[in-house]
Amino acid sequence: MARAFIALGSNLSNPGRQPADEVRLALRELDTLTDTRLLSHSSLYRTAPVGYDNQPDFINAVAELETSLSPLALLHAILALENQHGRERPFPNAPRVLDLDVLLYDQVSISSPELTVPHPRMHERGFVLLPLAEIAPELALAAHGKVSTLAVQCADQGVEKLEENAL
Fold first, then answer.
1. pTM across the whole model
2. Is 101 an active-site residue?
3. Is 21 known to be catalytic?
4. Structural domain span for residue 157
């Protein structure tokens, strides 16, 4: 069994659901993937958009999984979840109902056209590092250092932990 970390984000919603609902639902759905178990997940965080600013804020979280799926099989499974939620890709960094990314898969490094692990920009993104530091503060990111240290360096990126009753 491998230990994997998945980033979740949403800033659009399906009828009857808000972005926070999309993320909560996706967390439950990760636990139903074949040969996969949800071990833990972070709180929800409100974050400013990155790359394309003319869109609503995101709701983000990070999940820790135990899985016997291969890295590519895990990627395909989470892409299927995105599609079930109605994910569209009109342009890079576009608003989205659900965005799921494989951040880490054990100590494996992969660089292929389909998947890059560890996620290439996670070490500089507060919307990933703050939720990840909540559930795995001692985790080290190869050449970049400990997650808890990196998260402190991203404290000025407009990432706000949400209180459960605020959702």
1. 0.94
2. yes
3. no
4. 2-166
